[in-house]
Please model this.
Amino acid sequence: MNIVVVNDDGYDAIGIQILAKHLLKYGDIVVYAPATGQSAQSQARLECWITTLRESFKYINDMFGLNLEVEYAQTEQKDDSLGSNKQLQQREQNG
Model:
C-alpha cells in the first residue's frame, strides 16, 4: 500500500516524522510537506481576501446606496491533535 503523509509544518516537524515512522509497517510512505513551516498561511490569505472584499463592498455600497456586508465564520485554530512538538518528543522517548 502507498501512503501519503502531508502537513504544513515542514518535512522536518517532529509530528510528521513520528507519524511516517509508525505508518511504515502499513506500506510505502511518501512525505509531502514544505521545506519550512507554513502553518496558518491559508488563514492569512483568507484574512487578506476578506479585507479586499470588505473594501470592494464599501465602494459598491457608497456608489449604489446599498448596505452589503461581508461575514464569515472563523474556526478556532487548534494545535495538531497529537499535541505539541515537545509533547510528541516526550511520547516518542517514553515509547
Notes: DSSP finds three helices and two strands in the chain. Residues 78-82 have pLDDT under 50 and may be disordered.
